[in-house]
Design a protein that fits this description.
34% of the residues lie in helices and 15% in strands. By secondary structure, the protein is an alpha/beta fold. The chain has 3 domains: 243 residues, Rossmann fold, CATH 3.40.50.740; 171 residues, Dimethylsulfoxide Reductase, domain 2 (3-Layer(aba) Sandwich); 137 residues, Barwin-like endoglucanases, CATH 2.40.40.20. Strands 2-1-14-13-12-3-4 form a 7-stranded mixed sheet, sandwiched between helices. Strands 19-23-20-22-21-24 form a 6-stranded mixed β-barrel. A hairpin with a 2-residue loop joins strand 21 and strand 22. The two termini are 36 Å apart.
Length: 676
């Protein structure tokens, strides 16, 4: 963290482009100058094209998020997009539609833990991985479902090396076996679910033998794992990033996982899957309240790009989830946040920027995101960013995306800004460790400064984010500083509260057959779809591209496209790596450290070969997020943004995306690897 805070490449002052886009010529401005100019340009563009001409690209949580939604609602634009379609949000929105909340797994109290499409050892070593280790020591059974032999796979009682993209088929097979053998929670199913008979019919075709062919997992292992999960309770299947990034099956994987949790009686029990708030925690004003979604009229919501194809992940789906949530007692279950689950689709946003259809997108704001490295079809993203009349970025460093901006604002680090951390069980105040250096600021300051200049002053009454937190804590009688002094507070946890209040769905029960999905034209029951680029989906293509591609796997010490500037991190991983099985490398005449070319029908990149037994001989794992801060920022180099960027390999056309919310594939693709 000190290396990050004091890094010489950190952005410390607002900058304005003075030359052509991507030519690396910048002028330093004050915050007031930069905010004045950006607000003036936004006002002019809104007047000429309408408020919907402004879009936003989301990234990982380095900002407060609700402040962006508040600003956009007040400005009048529905077009916020980004990585949401492939990172937790598919699970979030789908679980709200299924049982009225996003469930978090009580791993430490579980007797069986299924790590499905995740490696906490690499992504949450001090969180979920430590919980898993404690559960294992206490005697919990561990099942790991992952194409790679991860650290968790090595400690597992059962490891299922699944073919990428086929997870929902395995889930439906588990469901079939659990129903056929009477291993479901009959009382819960009878009293608290709808659609069980329809579900039973839907899973009937997914026999262990058929699913073994689909998934490449032996039949006996499929049956043993299903029985272990169903028989040993309480059990959990924590959310995993791997399921959200597999394209056509992403949404239905989330649905099938939610259904498994429900029919086995693992919802809202100790050691199970929890989505309700605990006691006093429910009184703290939540993010949905702060978003001020009521400010955006229906006429503007209807202009959300991508809503025609993916209404469930736009305002129509979010409104239905919110309406069901509001029938529950206040503070029982967190309201669905729009910034999580009401999104424009990135493909449609960038197409509108390039083509002007169905209307022009002429301005984009990017915070905590590096769209050239975060989104698929990177060349389309590049073309879109170049075409904008106004592109504004707030970040820690000058990234490849920021290098194409018209204005760049310096972001404060997490230790330079206060945070209010609100979960279902506790509320913690995190004061800044140091004052912001130079002119770095937090995202609330950025949006408030623009909002004050664009006629939104009445809706930004709090001068600082600390004052916002005072407001949010009023219902529990605390100020932010008081919360700091008492180290936060825990709520008192109660279980099975649905017996009093029901579930936050249209029927008040767990919807195995989803009425919201049905109303919005989506499959109401989970279904498996063969990925378009796969050995079974495209056998002719597989002859030219014989290997199955995985991208997006977490690897230490990098985090997505971050940390490439940090010398200590680059010493550990100096170059981008593609992992091959020893047998595969031998056939391709590749050795450890060779530079190799990885190709798909979408594009080609280069990475160094890493040889490991952890990967299946038919599979390839290509590291994501790679660019080179030591290179020239000017075009055409652009920090080497296209040389080793795994997203150059990933398509985003509709046939590759989940039809419910448009999740694009970063895995379950076909590729070819050859020596450079």
């Amino acid at each position: 963290m000190p290396d990050h805070i004091y890094h010489p490449q950190r952005l410390n002052y607002p900058l304005k482009r003075t030359g052509e886009k991507g030519q690396g010529r910048w002028q330093r401005l004050t915050w007031d100058q930069a905010s004045d100019e950006v607000a003036d340009k936004l006002s002019r563009l809104r007047e000429q094209y309408g408020a919907e001409t402004l879009a936003f690209t989301h990234g990982t949580k380095r900002t407060y998020h609700w402040d962006a939604r508040r600003f956009f609602n007040l400005f009048g634009s529905p077009n916020m997009c980004g990585a949401n379609n492939i990172c937790m949000c598919p699970s979030y929105a789908t679980e709200y539609a299924t049982y009225g909340g996003m469930a978090w797994s009580d791993i430490m109290d579980a007797r069986c833990v299924v790590i499905w499409g995740a490696s906490p050892y690499k992504s949450e070593p001090t969180g979920r991985y430590s919980h898993l280790v404690r559960a294992k020591k206490r005697g919990a059974k561990v099942i790991v479902i992952d194409p790679r032999r991860t650290k968790e796979g090595e400690m597992a009682d059962l490891w299922l090396q699944i073919r990428p993209g086929t997870d929902v088929a395995l889930m439906l097979c588990w469901t079939r076996l659990i129903i056929d053998e009477g291993l479901f929670d009959q009382k819960f199913v009878e009293n608290w679910t709808v659609g069980f008979e329809d579900l039973n019919k839907a899973v009937a075709p997914y026999t262990p033998e058929k699913v073994a062919e689909i998934t490449m997992i032996p039949t006996k292992l499929i049956e043993e794992s299903a029985r272990m999960y169903a028989n040993i309770r309480p059990a959990v299947i924590p959310w995993g990033f791997g399921l959200d990034k597999q394209g056509v099956n992403a949404t239905q994987s989330a649905r099938a996982r939610a259904i498994l949790r429900a029919i086995t009686g693992n919802l809202e029990v100790q050691g199970g899957e929890i989505f309700s708030k605990a006691g006093e925690v429910g009184k703290v004003l939540d993010d949905e309240y702060m978003e001020f979604n009521e400010a955006l009229p229906a006429s503007q919501r209807a202009k959300q790009l991508g809503i025609d194809k993916y209404p469930f992940f736009g305002f129509p789906g979010w409104e239905k989830n919110l309406a069901s949530n509001k029938k529950l007692p206040s503070g029982y279950v967190m309201a669905p946040e729009a910034w999580h689950s009401s999104m424009a689709h990135a493909r449609d946003v960038f197409n509108a920027a390039i083509t002007g259809k169905p209307y022009p997108v002429t301005a984009i704001i990017t915070l905590a995101n590096n769209p050239l490295l975060a989104l698929p079809n990177a060349m389309r993203v590049f073309e879109a960013l170049k075409s904008l009349q106004l592109y504004v970025v707030m970040d820690y460093y000058l990234t490849p995306s920021a290098a194409l901006a018209d204005y760049v604002f310096p972001a404060s680090s997490t230790v330079e800004q206060p945070e209010l951390w609100l979960t279902n069980d506790f509320c913690v105040a995190c004061p800044p460790g140091i004052d912001p250096l130079y002119e770095r600021r937090n995202s609330y300051h950025f949006y408030r400064e623009l909002g004050m200049r664009l006629g939104q002053a009445e809706q930004w009454p709090w001068e600082t984010i600390a004052e916002v937190y005072d407001h949010r804590l009023q219902p529990v009688g605390l100020t932010f500083q008081q919360l700091v002094e008492q180290y936060g507070f825990f709520g008192k946890r109660e279980y099975r509260r649905y017996e009093k209040f029901g579930f936050g769905t249209p029927t008040g029960k767990v919807e195995l057959y989803s009425s919201i999905f049905q109303d919005l034209g989506s499959e109401p029951l989970p279904v498996y779809r063969e990925p378009p680029w796969s050995p079974k989906g495209s056998p002719e293509l597989a002859e030219e591209y014989p290997l199955i591609l995985i991208t997006g796997s977490r690897f230490m010490p990098m985090y997505h496209s971050e940390q490439r500037q940090i010398e200590k991190a680059r010493r550990k991983v100096p170059d981008p790596l593609v992992t091959l099985n020893p047998n595969t490398a031998r056939k391709l005449e590749l050795e450890e450290g060779d530079w190799a070319l990885i190709s798909t029908p979408q594009g080609k990149i280069r990475q160094r070969v890493n040889i490991s037994e952890e990967i299946h001989p038919q599979m390839v794992d290509s590291q994501h997020g790679w660019w080179f801060p030591e290179r020239d920022q000017k075009l055409p180099e652009l920090f080497g943004a296209f040389e080793s960027n795994a997203n150059m390999l990933c398509p985003d056309d509709p046939e590759f995306c989940s039809p419910e919310i448009g999740s694009w594939p970063h895995s379950a693709l076909l590729c070819r690897v050859e020596k450079e």
